[in-house]
Amino acid sequence: QIAVRACFLGFAFGCGVLLSAGRSAWRHFGWYMCSLSLFHYSEYLVTAINNPRSLSLDSFLLNHSFEYNLAALSSWVEFTLEKLLFPELKQITWLSTVGLLMVIFGDCLRKAAMLTAGSNFNHIVQNEKSDTHTLVTSGVYGWFRHPSYVGWFYWSIGTQVLLCNPICVVGYALASWRFFRERIEEEEITLIHFFGEEYLEYKRKVPSGLPFIKGVKLEL
């Protein structure tokens, strides 16, 4: 099953490259296909390098959630309909380039966060502290408390800017912001339980990285 998913992502990436190389009206969608397939493949690859004990089929994040799959489907539907009804909207190259830069920045930031955290990083919020679990505050964690979420947030919005999908840009921004607000609060309760005053001091010094999200309001 791992090989099947890897081959599928490789095939999607190849199709994206072919679309990107041409001068067809689908060139920007080719950029999107490359970005999407590379994101999911690299999630598995970096997890395999960093924390092989937590590696599983779910590490591709292809089956992240029903809502995630619905959001992806919605973006494809919007792109196709608007391409048929307003083809000029999908030919704004400078806007798609901005979206591509957002995608590259977001994905690089997320992977940098995963590599910096090493075995401390896990796709699932941990409820029990392991013997090797340490509080990471260096590298990109010195910029933001949750750099992997910041990266994913801007990556997801960037995919829709790339596709010139105005409806999904707004929808993705709102849905992602709400998801990460709840996820950060849940995670920070666990981190305070794990590290106590050490994490609270880190929390006071370093921002979450996401707009208008300050994290859990809890003091010892």
From TrEMBL:
Record Gene3D superfamilies: 1.20.120.1630
BP GO annotations: methylation
A Gene Ontology molecular function term of the record: protein C-terminal S-isoprenylcysteine carboxyl O-methyltransferase activity
Location within or outside the cell: Endoplasmic reticulum membrane
Enzyme Commission designation: 2.1.1.100
Record-linked InterPro entries: ICMT_MeTrfase, PPMT_MeTrfase
Reactions that this protein is recorded to catalyse: [protein]-C-terminal S-[(2E,6E)-farnesyl]-L-cysteine + S-adenosyl-L-methionine = [protein]-C-terminal S-[(2E,6E)-farnesyl]-L-cysteine methyl ester + S-adenosyl-L-homocysteine
Pfam family, one: ICMT
Membrane topology label: Multi-pass membrane protein
Name of this chain's protein: Protein-S-isoprenylcysteine O-methyltransferase
